[in-house]
Amino acid sequence: MGGYFVDRMLKVFKKGIAWDRQLATDSNVLLVRLADVATDAVFALWPLFLVLIIAAVASPFFLNAWNFSSKAFSPNLNRLNPMSGMGRIFSWNGLVELAKAVVKAGLVGGVAIWVIWREIDQLLGLSSQSLEAGLADAGHLMAWSFLVIAAAMVLIVAADVPFQLWQYYDKLKMTKEEVKQEMKEMEGSPEVKGRIRQLMREAARKRMMSAIPKADVIVTNPTHFAVALAYQSGMKAPKVVAKGMGVIALKIREIGTEHGVAFLEAPPLARALYKHVELEAEIPGTLYNAVAEVLAYVYQLRRYRSEGGDYPVPPRDLPIPPELVPPAPAEPALAGALNG
């Protein structure tokens, strides 16, 4: 577009240097003429300005997309603090920027000196040319010099862009303390959550202990495990109202003894119930037969206590699928230690 720019700028120059007597006597006319010339110059160069605006807007997009934020518009008195400014200048980032500025100045200055030295004869020859020819050659020299200097900047860009991206993502990284704080804000403080879980366990344990007096039978291991079962009319199947191992098992036995709950020592059944049945859940169908024999024994025991007669025989060899029976702990103390 060299011809277009030369033609438009010639008209601007001619209009600007045209003599008018009023310009020497009336400052208002001078200001109006200056405004007209400036406006004509802007309109003459609008394609160049448009290309520069597009380049300035598109460059951030190709680097890391656009990021719109109103934070820069908010007042910040720290920007006026000279100590903060000195800190930024003498920081590690400030030293890096200073080094880049020195390299840029040296590279651009060196290339510019080389271009001028190479074209010195043509530059000196511009004074002997006509205005039109001189402007055209000058525009050609300026465009060629600009392209050469811009091409030299590619060397800096090739090193600076990866560094800027690395620095940007490095600043986004959080410290360990920031990660911990974010986890606390998102999921709650571990201390508070731990305290809540502890309170929930205590509340569940209290509910479990309060349900033991209403149990029909407590099946034991005899000391490792204790599982309290209850069955009432309307239930589809017997339900586990309390269970525990070690210290909790002893506490279940203690409460059951105080309230006269029947006991049955059946280690395989106790381990199976403890392993496969959740608290306040009904027993699975695979244990119906075994639990039915236990409850039948409990009802016979109640009849014996109220009416007398022959003492019922506790059931042995209950029908329990082998795959439901977990191995027994090696030592009773181990179970108590694990539970404690």
Task: Report on this structure.
Mean pLDDT is 81; it is low at 332-340. This protein has helices spanning 2-17, 21-25, 27-44, 46-64, 82-89, 92-118, 120-125, 131-172, 176-187, 190-211, 247-258, 267-276, 288-307, 332-339, and strands spanning 217-220, 225-230, 239-245, 262-265. Strands 3-2-1-4 form a four-stranded mixed sheet, sandwiched between helices. The chain is rod-shaped and about 140 Å long. The longest helix is centred in the middle third of the chain and has 42 residues, at 131-172. The protein has 14 helices and four strands. It has three domains: 1-62; 91-173; 211-324, name from scop. α1 runs antiparallel to α3 (27-44). The chain is 66% helix and 6% strand. By secondary structure, the protein is of the alpha+beta class.
SSE order: HHHHHHHHHHEEEHEHHH
Quote the CATH topology of the largest domain. Answer: name from scop
What do we call the CATH homologous superfamily of the largest domain? secretion proteins EscU
Structural class: alpha+beta
Going by CATH, the architecture of the largest domain would be 3-Layer(aba) Sandwich
Question: How many helical elements?
Answer: 14
Subcellular location: Cell membrane
Protein name: Flagellar biosynthetic protein FlhB
Pfam families: Bac_export_2
Biased composition (Pro residues): 313-330
